[in-house]
Amino acid sequence: MGLTGIQILAKLPKKNCNECGYPTCLAFAMKVAAGQAEITACPYVDPKVVEEIAEATAPPIRTVKLGGGDYIYSLGGETVLFRHEKRFENPPLIGTYISTNMDETEIARRIELYKRLIWDRIGIKLQPEVIFIQGKVDGSKFIDLVKRVREELPQKALILSADVPSLEKVLSFCEDFKPLLYGASIENYEEMFKLAKEKNVPLTLVANSLDELIELAEKGIQSGLKDLVLDSGALGVKELFEDLIIIRRAAIKKRFKPFGFPVITFPYRYTEDYLLESVLGGLLIAKYASIIIFSDLRAESLFNLLVERMNIFTDPQKPLVVEEGIYPINGPDEYSPVAITCNFALTYFIVKGEIEGSRVPTWLLIQNTDGLSVLTAWAAGKFGADSIAEFVKRCGIENKIKHRKLKIPGYLAGIKGELEEELPGWEIIVGPREASGLSVSLRKLYAELQELKKAS
Ligand code: SF4
């Protein structure tokens, strides 16, 4: 069981020195208990106590990391069964496989798909991020294939499946980019455990049943392996779901250590119909896969799966935001309209879309409102006349334009007078209440500004 904040407080030095970033040891202890702060942030705790607390407060499903440098991918780390209880932590990695059995055309096609299938949605990049590389023929082909994938797709997480000598050779040049090894079975676990330990890389346990999986996991834990991933080897869809739910429930509700690891799945094992495979993938995103390997990547279903994943794994307590700043849209110049709105991502992308559609060159000012929408931000005192005036003066828009006209959202009509007082020399123009009305009102303002330009 995890420790409570009070139990953690009892182990702290109680200096209330603020060096951990929290005003008191009690506040810090509460955050550690909630999993929102690391015990190592307090420099005065005895290392033995750090270990003890870290162990006791670790999530019931271990966080396993793949990749390296700027591309670290976290698996597992989950603490709840249902998203409404708290939130899900780490979205499942999605990808397909490339095999030494494939011909050059097929390998090139699959690599190309990884480069091409990337979408931008409300500022988030949606893309497949993991590749399962299978070595089926001889070791040298496998080594060449891994080298090629590393060169062409250096940011993608790797899962490597081959015989032990080939894996050993491959790890000599890519162990820094922590690949996941696949996999240790009841037949080969001793050599695979040895390799994973020597190279300090995560390892998949591949079993034929849950009982066998427990046996393998217990052996792995006993041998000192920490970063494990589970494959229960389910033969049918029903069995797969049962396994995934049993594993998650046992880990979270019972803190059953052998099941406290992320899980890898292969939906194509259960159907030859790509549509059904995609539907199955959609279910696995919600319950409870940590890695999903498809038979192929097809834009029409992959995009939907990535959006589903984004929605399920977005923290509902944290609004999506865009960065504060000046956003030029449609190539604005010194006589282009200036409009301002909040930094709630949905508002930004709707407003941006409308401005792009209007084709009016526009400077869009995005003010940091902590992700609150226009009216909520105004009600919270984060988007009133004083804060807008302060932002307009500070953001540098005055150096980019030769007029002083600012369009504010229609919902802020009530602050027009006050804002004009706060921004002397500026004319405040109240825009439409809905973004759909922006196009007409921007065109009107643009025409006025062009007259001003001619007269200047
Ligand atoms: S750094 Fe340690 S001693 Fe200081 S306030 Fe934080 S928890 Fe307390």
Biggest β-sheet strands, sense, barrel: 8 strands, parallel
Beta-strand percentage? 15-25%
Write down the overall geometry. globular
- Catalogue the unreliable spans: none
What Rg do the Cα atoms give? 27 Å
The small molecules bound here are:
iron/sulfur cluster
Helical residue percent band: 40-55%
CATH-defined superfamily of the largest domain: Dihydropteroate synthase-like
Can you tag this structure with a few keywords?
single chain, 456 residues, alpha/beta, 3-methyladenine DNA Glycosylase II, Chain A, domain 3, TIM Barrel, Rossmann fold, 16 helices, 17 strands, 41% helix, globular, binds iron/sulfur cluster
Structure description:
Strand 7, helix 6 (164-174) and strand 8 (180-184) form a beta-alpha-beta unit. The mean pLDDT is 93. Helix 10 (274-286) packs parallel to helix 11, helix 12 (345-358) packs across helix 16 and helix 14 crosses helix 15 (416-422). Helices cover 41% and strands 17% of the residues. The strands form four sheets. The protein has an eight-stranded parallel sheet, with helices on one face. A five-stranded mixed sheet has the order 13-15-14-16-17, sandwiched between helices. Strands 1-2 form a two-stranded antiparallel sheet. The longest helix is centred in the C-terminal third of the chain and has 18 residues, at 438-455. By secondary structure, the chain is α/β, with parallel strands linked by helices. It has three domains: 5-57, Electron transport complex subunit B, putative Fe-S cluster (3-methyladenine DNA Glycosylase II, Chain A, domain 3, Orthogonal Bundle); 63-313, TIM Barrel; 325-455, 3-Layer(aba) Sandwich (Rossmann fold). It contains 16 helices and 17 strands. The chain has helices at residues 5-10, 25-33, 47-57, 104-116, 139-152, 164-174, 189-199, 210-222, 237-253, 274-286, 299-313, 345-358, 374-379, 385-395, 416-422, 438-455; strands at 63-68, 71-76, 93-99, 119-121, 124-126, 130-134, 157-161, 180-184, 203-206, 228-231, 264-265, 291-294, 325-329, 338-342, 362-367, 405-408, 427-430.
